Amino acid sequence: MFRDLLVANLVSDIGAFMQGVAAAWLMVSLGAGPLNVALIQTATTVPFFVLALPAGALGDIVDRRRLILVTETWMAAAALTLAVSTLLGLTSAWLLLAFTCILSIGDAVEAPSWRALLPELVERDDLAAASALNGIEFNLARAVGPAIGGLLVAAAGAGVVFAVNAASFLGVMAVIARWKRPRAPRTAPPETLGGATAAALRYVRYSPAIRTLLVRSGGTMFFAAALMALLPSVAHAISDKPLGYGLLLGAFGAGAVVGALSLQRLRARLSAEHILSAALAVLGVALLAAGTLHSLGGLCAFMVAGGAGWMVFVSMLNTMVQQLAPSWVRARVLAVFMLVFMGSMALGSVAWGFTAEHLGLDIALVVAGAGAAATILLRFVARLPDVDVDMSVWRHWPAIRSVADLSPDPDDGPVLVTIEYHVEPPQSAAFVEAIHRLGRLRRRDGASQWGIFRDTAAPDRWIETFIVSSWAEHLRQHERAVAADRPVEEGVRRSARAAPAVRHFLYVSKGG
Predict the structure, then answer these.
(1) Least confident span in 48-62, 346-360, 402-416, 454-468
(2) What domains does the chain contain, in order, with CATH numbers?
(3) What's the pLDDT tens digit per position in 86-103?
(4) Fewer beta carbons under 10 A from the terminal one: N or C of the chain?
(5) CB-based contacts of 284: which residues, under 8 Å, 6+ apart?
């Protein structure tokens, strides 16, 4: 299934890159300036920013297979409509932006579910290799698609390219339609869209490793966005033929393939921080070259380097997010990552397009290149996290006891959970430090309030309390612990004298 999807997605991505070339060149042909050209990338990325969270929530609470089928159909229909409009000569600059946005809406809704499928298709040990293969596929499409797109635009026009893109969705739809996706067992009630979205934000808030990756991604992409946003204008300034833009994108994609093929070897020799710093330095140099070189051949060489740096940067961070997100929240965490990534790209596209419009194309690219290289300094305030952790489910919580006439309904709540510990006074300092680490995990997995209290009449008696919004949410909390949490739990237990006593209290309203 992984192989079949990889091949089908290669065809689809080639169509998407052909569409990108045709859309950018059509926009330039319609007499648009650098700002409108850059707005194509904004129209592509804004839906990811707006829809990332609900799309991630949908990806975790509905059948991902059906969701992908719906979104693929949506995108095929949008591409076909744009093709017909263009062939009839009805497409304007604003209509082109609108259809670009409509296509991106389907991609934005699908993307978290699509990325979350990878751990279902391969074993954890193969995840990095599979992710690299996905990167190679994507960038092989980036290398081939623009060149084919440029040739086809020159030979038959943008409308034909849009029609080819519409047909390219059929392969993915066929593979997904015949996939019999196994469903994971679930004992807790399913989440609502609002609750799942809130859970995603809470998880990211209390996951320092995920937050670090978001900072590194967003900080770099704001500057790096200038390369893809302004490349059509750079190509048009060098050559008045669409093939020139296709060659630059093809060189960028070829470099990305080289970067993906080199990544495993680099990981065996260098630390993640050293690899990422080198990638950002190369990316910065490519931006500087785009702003100072005016030769198509010379610029293609730097685009190869820029593509390699871009691929290494994106692949490393994307793989780290997948490795650090447990299965129950994986699509949502990837959605937040995409929100920051695409949001920074959209904001950067507008900012650098505006800068190019008012200060000049070369100045915008040079400043962006310097900024991209400077993000290497983020390593001193947000070091990359360790991903060698076990994120598999750890079902260590005991079953909840309740008498028959007090058995709660899923919507009952809030729920107050108390856990009583007995800690010898010499162990108090170690216990406090360990329990506060555990408190962060409680909040991450569902607690809205958390606290630790000491009995003034019995110095060895401590009470941990936390509140969960509903009985259903507490049942889900039982399913959210991962094996990587074990050292934190064991640190608390080592400080305590005996096994803790757990009690559950259900809120009772007036007259209840």
Answers:
(1) 402-416
(2) 2-179+194-380 (1.20.1250.20), 404-506 (3.30.70.100)
(3) 888 887 888 888 888 899
(4) C
(5) 223, 369, 370, 371, 372, 373, 374
